[in-house]
Amino acid sequence: MMKVALVGCGRISKRHVEAISETKGIEITMVCDIIEERAKALAEKLGLPYVCDYKKIRGVDVISVLTPSGDHPRHAAEIAETSDASYIVCEKPISLTVREADELFKRVDKAGKVLLPVYQNRYNPLIVMIKDLIASGRLGKIYQFICNVLWNRNDDYFKIGWHGTRALDGGVLYTQASHYVDMVHYFFGELVSGKGQGGFLRGMEVFDTVSAVMRFQSGVVGSLNATISAYQQNYETEFTLIAEKGIIRLAGTNLNTIRHWNVEGMEKPDLDFHLDHIYGKGHNKMYEYIASGSWEMFPSREDVLSGIHLMEKLSY
Question: Is the pTM of this model over 0.85?
Answer without folding.
Answer: yes
